[in-house]
């Protein structure tokens, strides 16, 4: 049976323009990242340090979340907890209803994508407007992000120019990036002016001070968190760090790994709503902490490393599979290597387990990961969990669900033959003799390759002929 | 709902035996980047800061306590600004207000945003603010908005002119946090690091400036 994933991959491979857009972008990002780390030793030290900061935070996650909540509450920020995306959406809905808000303006937030917030709110008649330029572009086209940092990376300038012209026919056609940007600025400025509820994601939450940190270049994050009278932040429970001094190294390695910038234009630290006497900023700030499977991942010492991720996207930029099939092929919120380990764990191996197979295990992802997540090992573990029989010993959702009788039987037979020398010899000699009759069609493998040919004689025979005595 | 969710999530997390903390995590060093520390003197910090700021298309002017007002006034003239938002309450703002005739029409942020949002969004050409310091390594301004210089001043007007005092120019972000005692004094409502004018590379990786925030950032280093 052909899965949706395979069908989408095939369809996307057949789009040369999209492939070219990805190739160009990822090439540039890899070079820019490399330029940021001229000193290899410093990079390795910084990676170790960043891994340690994240591992330390995870090692005391429940306590840090409680400290964070206490400090945010003391600062006047309202904290909400959601086990599922539905609960998260309902919390947002309740806040909007209390303010009688019919629209919301959003800064970039992958967790809100994870929650399917736009669909949820739009079904309630609430307009959700994305204000990050890339998100704004794909929203116009009814698409989802194809990259976690650069959501519209799959489109080129001409495609975007045509899209703008189609959606805003009153504005003259232009392919000039500056003019396109200014068009978006004018349209979105009016929305920032008028909208009373803004939403954002969070990059780091500092337990020690009760501070929400946002990393961005455009100012959409600052606008969404400052201009409207209510600010709602949504994020996963793992994004907490212990102290403020943990932030500078993480910020540095995040921006350098992601886009090759020494720092982004804005680093925004929010610690409270508008205080008495202050003249702007939201009157209310809310934080929605989303679990959505994270506490389950947390329970496995090997898979826990997944939660160290700081969402820099470097693994995506360096993945040879991603660059060919593109972000949309994954059919998930997070694409690329991080998506291939996170999504199967969140949704279950029966739903997205195939993604763990969509890797050559080349290791480029773990080589660049700033927090040293062993992505290939986790992929292997998930492959194993998918087909294992002793599912009682693992918490991974959907364990054993990818086990098929035919595959299990094949491997069982192979194992039996390989451990019985007489059978193995007979089998390999037979196969060599009748190699002309072996099938040339081996399913998916031979759709793009020729079938392997067996040698004239078996390895054992060749070794014997060479006169090597194996005894 | 939220309380049950909270209890359930925390219970699940607490069920997991505590994970050993990473051994190489040593607190005294953790603010430093990869163990690197630079020995930059003031001149080197200013040089690095300027280089980085200019690289992201900010304008940097060097001035003295005697000349900075001239510099700001020249910048306003060169950009053809018709007005400038500046606090009459801060030390620097007072000096600009005292010589109002040398500047474009001075505007003040003396009421909550709700009472003058339209003018702020569509009628202000530029804002002048002080800063809380700077970071040489990355070419960054530290801005902590206050009652006198609210948050939107450095965000909404198309031009942001900021003054940075050299003695508050730190080498790294970590050093600024430590030297200024951010944890001890408590964090303000909003603290910002600003490194250049607003920009995006979302269209074909091509840099475009002034997406939502200022199109131009002018830093006067004194
Ligand atoms: S897994 Fe590592 S490289 Fe990939 S996004 Fe997360 S932190 Fe970045």
From TrEMBL, chain A:
Keywords attached to this entry: 4Fe-4S, Electron transport, Iron, Iron-sulfur, Metal-binding, Repeat, Transport
Sequence ranges assigned to domain 4Fe-4S ferredoxin-type in this UniProt record: 299-328
InterPro entries: 4Fe4S_Fe-S-bd, 4Fe4S_Fe_S_CS, FTHF_cligase-like_sf, Helical_ferredxn, LUD_dom, LutB/LldF, LutB_C, NagB/RpiA_transferase-like
A Pfam family of this chain: Fer4_8
GO biological process: lactate metabolic process
GO function terms (MF aspect): 4 iron, 4 sulfur cluster binding; metal ion binding
Highest taxon of source: Bacteria
NCBIfam families: LutB/LldF family L-lactate oxidation iron-sulfur protein
Name this polypeptide is given: LutB/LldF family L-lactate oxidation iron-sulfur protein
Species for this entry: Thiothrix subterranea
Automatic annotation (TrEMBL), chain B:
Domain of life: Bacteria
All copies of domain LUD, residue ranges: 47-222
Pfam families registered for this protein in UniProt: LUD_dom
SUPFAM superfamilies named in the record: NagB/RpiA/CoA transferase-like (SSF100950)
Matches recorded under Gene3D superfamilies: NagB/RpiA/CoA transferase-like
Membrane-spanning segments: none
Signal peptide: none
Region (Disordered): 1-30
PANTHER family, per the entry: LACTATE UTILIZATION PROTEIN C
Name of the protein described by the UniProt record: Lactate utilization protein
Lineage: Bacteria, Pseudomonadati, Pseudomonadota, Gammaproteobacteria, Thiotrichales
